[in-house]
Amino acid sequence: MSNTPERLALQQAVTVCQGHAEALQDALHDMQLRALNADDYSNLTKADRRLLDQFAYRYTRLQDDMGTRLMPAMLKALGEDVAPMSALDRFARLEQLGWLPSADDWLGLRQVRNQFAHDYPDTVAERFERLQAAIAAAGQLLSVMRRFQTKIAAQSAS
Q1: Is the pLDDT of residue 1 over 70?
Q2: CA nearest to 127, candidates 140, 118, 136
Q3: d(C-alpha 61, C-alpha 69), whole Å
Q4: What is the pTM assigned to this prediction?
């Protein structure tokens, strides 16, 4: 790929998403070191709350920026006309092209994120369960980001 406006927009989107991905990885690492359990989750310290906020923020930002910036930029760089496409159509097209493992799984990651970040179950056990689901989903999200980076690097090299 040459340095077209589409390619430059793609590089900018990759840079933004990479920053979020690195911060999300840091939060996941710190959470692993902290090893919160269900009992801890009912008595979070100030540091714990900050760590969980950082995790939720970076998960949200990475997924949002990938969906609204990176994926449309990738399609444009591939010569696709994204203007008439809905978000679901963009995800499906990226799946067809081999960039996104599954459009349905992508939507599932967003649902997990929304449940963790916006729903507040009554019981600590339910909140902790949602945290565990969000941690697993974050791993999948980072995997999708790595896939994009690998494929973009391969295209740049050719």
Answers
A1: no
A2: 118
A3: 11
A4: 0.89
